[in-house]
Specification:
- There is one protein chain.
- The chain is built from 17 helices and 14 strands.
- The strands form four sheets. The chain has a six-stranded parallel beta sheet, sandwiched between helices.
- A hairpin with a 5-residue loop joins strand 3 and strand 4.
- Helix 1 packs across helix 7 and helix 7 packs across helix 8.
- The radius of gyration is 26 Å and the shape is elongated.
Length: 404
Amino acid sequence: MSNKPLAGIRVLAIETQVAGPYCTMMLGDAGAEVIKVESPGRGDASREPGPILKNEAGEKISGYFMRWNRNKKSLTLNLKSEEGREIFKELLKKSDVILENLKPGFLTGIGFDYGTIKKINPRIIHVSISGFGVDKRYLGPFTKRTAYDIVVQAMGGLMDLIGYEDGPPLHPMIAFGDVVTGMMTAYAVMLALYKREVTGEGESIDMAMYDVMLSLTERTLNFYSMTGKVMSRGKESLIYPWGSFKTRDGYVAMIVLESKMWKRFCEAMDKPELIEDERFKTATLRSKHKLELEPLINEWMKDKTSEEVCDIMLKNNVPIGTVNNARQIFNSPQAEARKMWMEIDDPVAAKVKVIGNPVKMASIPVDETAKAVPRLGENTDEVLQEVLDFPAEKIKELKTNQIV
């Protein structure tokens, strides 16, 4: 058996798109057996979007799907049929976690609410991911709304913080609503598994993408709670220098917070006269007088490369880094040293590098390769034979009847 922490844990995933699949990908990376239950014929909707990768034979696979479905098995199962639901029931008996992030109430609608699931398997951990939550104790006015990443980023306050002060709110081009929800859900599953070790009891987890966005925007929300003031996007009212600064060949990002750091920053720019300037004594005062300070910084940086600026500032112990694009990170020696790329050898896409898992544990070597993402229904026979002990004739009958 694998020495990974979740070896021996079986996860049933009734999932689509990103938030649920990202969570189960993390569980799979940690050694769990993830069985992705998909509808016969179509499967997860995320199998369709691009980029579409092809081989010489013309076979296709979605690069979108490859991003968060490694280390999983695909079982096709018609949950609308009575026989399909009976098979699902048997799988529940032999699983540790059941995760769903389809339309809220999907499993309840086919007869598998948490109460029913708990009777089938008292030790199972039931996980629901939705836009606004499904736990009856905490239902709000948005409960029945359909939610995608951009919707919860907007409603949770994240987009209001991105963009210029006098411009429209912007999406960051990163699916924080999906990805961070997946990460937080994996954390919740870990808590539930630990609780089960102690008590022997299962658990029901209700994860709302909206809630996760509120936890990400805690700075502006707590600031409003404490002061009654709303932070404006594109304008930092508490700290300066803070943000990105133009160099000769790109941008750097930095923060200058306490007085000791300000002193080192001024020395790095060879402007010691600014250290005791009353306008710039504190981070808040510097922010107030930003229009006076910013031109001095820009003038100092304009003829220096980003690397030169970083070298000077780092020698003076000022936190700074280059603003990198995807190409630069792909070729970064730091990302390589941290083994943050994982290779998938796919029969269609050939060898593709994808971002790996950030979790490093002393006793477990980092995986530098992953199993290819499963074709739709690729592991159906395997799961039915090895998990449920179905004979070959039974599986053939199920396929004939379009149950799997």
